């Protein structure tokens, strides 16, 4: 039951989570929809990668048929998954006037549909063993409407938060906990590329005075999937340095 899956593994948060899981002795299904990015991640992981502990797989996490076939492959060729980190997603920064219906639907597909489809596909095995962990990568934007993000992204993260609540209530009786993490301003290439003036302004608004490190996000994942976190269910854990306190 120490088999985990991380979707969107090639992103900064995904990479940190995969590395943490491998270092903690988990078997890890490493997913991404970009083959070259997935190959680069495997190369970066170096000696942590071996066929007994890693199962890299590339598929469209937003397509129902693709997800079902991939889950069958994983179960048959590797191990059943009992820990899922729904990290697949995209960032969108356009305001409502510049957001087309296609942009809106694409953001929902990546940020919400993928979590629904993969969770639905993996739940039967978790229910069979009466144990499982699902952690969704939410965002402060889902609670605030977004400080520097667009309307589609903020709305999808609000939807993912509600999905977390609904799924947690439905699955708790089966020994499966569902929680989310709502980070803000993780140190990523995107944040590092902000204009100096914006970085200065953001750091003035964040009480701890710095951006979050990806490893801190991964550490929160480590806590939520542990057996002793089994009484935490349906929570969205803020990880924003005090930018939003509730």
Give a written overview of the molecule:
The chain has 246 residues and is an alpha/beta fold. The chain has one domain: Rossmann fold, CATH 3.40.50. The protein is built from nine helices and seven strands, in the order E-H-E-H-E-H-E-H-E-H-H-E-H-H-H-E. Helix 1 crosses helix 9 and helix 4 runs parallel beside helix 6. The longest helix is centred in the middle third of the chain and has 29 residues. It starts with a strand and ends in a 7-residue tail after the last strand. 42% of the residues are buried.
Q: Which properties best describe this structure?
A:
3-oxoacyl-[acyl-carrier-protein] reductase (NADPH) activity, 246 residues, globular, Rossmann fold, seven-stranded parallel beta sheet, Sc_DH/Rdtase_CS, SDR_fam, single chain, alpha/beta
């Amino acid at each position: 039951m120490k088999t985990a899956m991380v979707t969107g593994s090639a992103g900064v948060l995904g990479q940190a989570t995969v590395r943490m899981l491998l270092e903690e002795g988990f078997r890890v299904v490493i997913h991404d929809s970009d083959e070259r990015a997935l190959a680069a991640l495997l190369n970066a992981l170096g000696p942590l990668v071996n066929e007994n502990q890693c199962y890299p797989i590339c598929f469209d996490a937003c397509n129902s048929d693709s997800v079902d076939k991939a889950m069958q492959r994983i179960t048959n060729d590797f191990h059943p998954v009992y820990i899922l980190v729904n990290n697949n997603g995209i960032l969108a920064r356009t305001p409502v006037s510049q957001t087309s219906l296609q942009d809106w639907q694409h953001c929902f597909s990546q940020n919400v549909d993928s979590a629904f489809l993969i969770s639905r596909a993996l739940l039967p095995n978790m229910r069979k063993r009466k144990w499982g962990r699902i952690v969704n990568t939410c965002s402060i934007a889902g609670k605030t409407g977004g400080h520097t993000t667009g309307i589609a992204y903020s709305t999808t993260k609000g939807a993912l938060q509600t999905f977390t609540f609904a799924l947690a209530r439905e699955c708790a009786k089966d020994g499966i906990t569902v929680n989310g993490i709502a980070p803000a301003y993780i140190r990523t290439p995107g944040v590092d590329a902000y204009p100096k003036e914006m970085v200065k302004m953001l750091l003035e608004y964040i009480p701890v005075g710095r951006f979050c490190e990806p490893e801190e996000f991964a550490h929160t994942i480590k806590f939520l999937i542990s057996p002793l976190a089994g009484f935490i269910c349906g929570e969205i854990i803020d990880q924003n340095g005090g930018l939003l306190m509730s």
